[in-house]
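Example record

One chain of 494 residues, shown exactly as stored in the release files.
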Amino acid sequence: MKLKEKMKNNKHKKFDKKKLIGTISKKHIKNGSYTMVMSVIFIAVVVVLNMIVNAIPSKYSEIDISSQKLYSIGDDTKAMLKDLDKDVTIYQIAQSGSEDENITNLLKKYEDESKHIKVEQKDPVVNPKFVTEYTSDDLSANSLIVVCGDRNKVIDYNNIYESTIDYQTYSSQTTGFDGEGQITSAIGYVTSEDLPILYTLEGHGEKEMDSAIKEDIEKANMDIQSLNLLTEGSVPDDADCLFIDSPSTDISEDEKTAIIDYLENGGKAMIFSDYTTEDLPNFDAVLENYGVQREAGIVFEGDNQHYAMQMPYYLVPTINSTDASSETVSGGYYVLVPYAQGIKKMDDVRDTVTINSILTTSDQAYSKTDLNSDTLEKEDGDEAGPFDLGVSITETLDDDKETQIVYYSTSNLMESQVNQMVSGGNEKLIIESLKWMTDTEDSATVSIPSKSLSVSYLTLTDYDAAFWKICTIGLIPGFFLVVGFAVWMKRRKA
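Predicted structure tokens for this chain:
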């Protein structure tokens, strides 16, 4: 009986095993279906999220972590794009798959910033005749063509990346990226109906304009032309600004009259002067007609927070916020002003003339008249400060006209080497001053400096340099000596 029961039980166990296998198979199918459905949902979510992220403008989805913000657009460009009311198309000339990623990403920033900007890629292999519609030159790959209506401007790839030759190795090294500067300039050019003309006075031993400043002025879409007043007789009617760069000999009586007539009729002028032993009565008369005079001698600083490189005549003045300098101030720039003369505001100026200080020394500055002296310290006969080193002058006239003048008392402000010492601060101030005088509704004078890929200079006044010298040579080593001595004493007592 027990045997039969055992056999019966074994028979039931065999049946239960088949049932169990069937149950497990159904469970696996159910779990597999669930996993497959969840995988499909997950993939769909990832695809949708990817599509959403791709639809987000690059200015929100991409972060420029480069120290110089090489592949971002700045506030000046954003302001111009905000005011843009004409459709602009930017063509990137590159074969498919060979696009310069830096340029492509930068163009996306422009497209995201304004609905009036459209970017298209043109493959020269697929469209071999496209470039010939705009230029007969052979363009490098990844060059750009900016078009608005009937106006266009070509940006060659070689002008976007700046390079220099190392003559020791005879190899080329990329030193700068001028993508934003070139593209913004081209947009301003094709959308401007009337480009400003800047006339530079010649014939009196004027300094030649520094190449970097000249390039920036041209990038601001100003047409630079020379002017000889002896032959012309007057400042041309189409002049938007007169540029006088430190004449070493005096202008004539007729030239003085022509310049004053131009200014008194609502003209604009940017004027630089340098210290000279030559008398310049006619040149000075132009300045005095607008209430300013040059101080004798060269300005030295007595406050080491306002000069650099241990040279009290390499001045680091205070930059005051005016219509001609507010952006430089808000940007936190320094300005370096070597070998400057003081600017004195006259008391007997017309009530219609307003003079604003742009650059100012400290109270401890002095104008040294004896440059053959054996000492750099203030002596008897030296004029005490503070001094203006740069001023903006306006005069309101009839018929809604306004005279505008910016005067800086040294042309060294424009030197490239001096500008590099303050990481472009001088350049920023000069271009902003020109922009204040020449910017109109029909033109956009925006100039973005090239972004350097080389080492940036840290601007330190002599006070800052002395402070960090004391810290690194004295305080920090002294701190560790004290701590070490305290530890030694504690262990000795133990």
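Notes: Confidence is low (pLDDT under 50) at residues 11-15, 60-65.
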